[in-house]
Design brief:
The chain is an all-alpha fold. It contains 5 helices and no strands.
């Protein structure tokens, strides 16, 4: 059952990520913004879920894994962050590549902390 739930979560996360990428392109934003958005929002959501499941609610392991490993694992993407940054670097856009890496890490940590804190307050 756990494998099936992780697969369903993974498919849902991948489709959500794909939709966000398409929306950012539709609104004329660079692809880099879609990756940034999913990684930061994924960090925030994971912070909330970890806080709630650790301190307040008892999710079953299967449900927790479906959300964290399945959905958030396919929704967020470290590999796209690194490849995009490498591509920018190789094309001579050193500042943009550096900003992408630094801001992704800083805002990812802030989002995870904010989500964890919010999860503690809400539940």
């Amino acid at each position: 059952m756990s494998y099936l739930l992780i697969a369903i979560g993974g498919a849902s996360g991948a489709l959500t990520r794909y939709s966000i990428d398409k929306l950012t392109l539709y609104f004329g934003m660079e692809n880099i913004f879609g990756t940034f958005l999913v990684n930061i929002s994924g960090s925030f959501i994971l912070g909330i879920l970890i806080s709630i499941s650790t301190y307040k609610l008892n999710f079953s392991n299967a449900v927790r894994d479906a959300i964290t490993i399945g959905f958030l694992g396919s929704y967020t993407t470290f590999s796209t962050l690194t490849v995009t940054s490498l591509t920018l670097w190789q094309s001579g856009q050193y500042v943009k590549a550096s900003i992408n890496i630094v801001l992704s890490i800083i805002f990812g940590l802030i989002a995870a902390y904010a989500g964890f804190h919010l999860g503690n307050q809400v539940s």
